[in-house]
Structure formats: structure tokens, C-alpha cells
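Quick one, probably user error.
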């Protein structure tokens, strides 16, 4: 070896150091991919009915909604009761014959309604509300999915959940 040259330093890693580096790298990638994941829940708030990807009752306003990647769609909006009932009767969910009446049940005791729970941690205001007076509508079949509409007479606000059918 030439005495004028200094020996080149060699990088040495212990197996434990290399393992810690790989674990840290995996943690950073997992955290980053969560925030960059394109299939996160879509949440929009305080919109006019015209900006919602669903036909809403006449007169609906101040609409907020959340769409989960699974297809679950939750929304809430201000509306007059007669317009909401007309919307339900027009075929929200199943096609209803003129002589059929959808089953709309009066709320006789306090009913809990979650707001966007199970879809996202994003929710301004209360995470749930309790309806003391209003009505509840539920339609569910394996082929068409589930539709739930709850109406709070005190606030004039409807809370809806649409769940797509479960694939075979």
C-alpha cells in the first residue's frame, strides 16, 4: 500500500441498525401512502342541492354529504316535510306504484342518528343528533341496498344513508 494514501473508510452497519432503518422506512411509507391514497372518503359541506351528485327533494338546501369508497353515501340537508315525503314517494330506492305507500314511521321516542360516523373522523358540529319528533323511512333489499331517511321536525333537517347492495 502506498504510504501517501489514507485507508478508505468502510461503512459498517450492524444487523440491528439495518433492521431499525428498514422499520423506520416502512413506517414513513405507510403513513405517507395513507394520506396520498386516492380512495379516501369524500366529504362536502354546506352546498346548494344543485352541487350534489344525487337528485334531492325540491327545496333542499344547506346540503352536506360523505361518500365512502365502499359506495356508502350519507347526506343531510334542510327541507320542508311535505317536499321530503314527496321525494320518498317518488321512488327513493324502489320504484313505487301509484297505489303503494312507502312505510314512513313516526318517531315516538328519542331516536339517535349518527352523522358521518363510520365513514370518516371529519365532522363539524355534533357527531350525532337525537330526533324527538319527526319520521323515519327505511327500505332495504339484497338487490337494491338500503336507504334510510330520518327527518327532524324541530330543525327541518333530513338525514339520509344509502348503502349499495352486497355483491354475491
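Nope, works fine. Designed sequence:
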Amino acid at each position: 500500500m502506498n504510504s501517501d494514501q489514507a485507508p478508505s473508510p468502510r461503512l459498517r452497519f450492524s444487523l440491528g441498525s439495518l433492521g431499525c432503518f428498514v422499520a423506520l422506512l416502512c413506517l414513513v411509507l405507510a403513513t405517507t401512502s395513507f394520506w396520498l391514497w386516492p380512495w379516501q372518503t369524500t366529504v362536502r359541506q354546506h352546498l346548494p342541492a344543485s352541487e350534489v351528485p344525487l337528485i334531492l327533494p325540491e327545496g333542499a338546501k344547506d346540503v352536506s354529504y360523505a361518500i365512502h369508497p365502499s359506495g356508502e353515501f350519507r347526506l343531510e340537508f334542510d327541507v320542508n316535510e311535505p317536499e321530503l315525503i314527496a321525494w320518498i314517494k317518488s321512488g327513493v330506492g324502489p320504484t313505487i306504484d301509484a297505489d303503494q305507500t312507502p312505510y314512513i314511521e313516526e318517531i315516538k321516542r328519542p331516536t339517535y342518528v349518527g352523522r358521518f360516523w363510520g365513514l370518516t373522523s371529519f365532522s363539524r358540529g355534533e357527531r350525532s343528533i337525537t330526533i324527538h319528533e319527526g319520521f323515519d323511512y327505511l327500505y332495504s333489499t339484497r338487490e337494491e341496498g338500503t336507504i334510510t331517511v330520518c327527518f327532524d321536525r324541530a330543525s327541518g333537517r333530513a338525514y339520509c344513508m344509502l348503502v349499495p347492495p352486497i355483491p354475491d
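The chain has two helices and nine strands.
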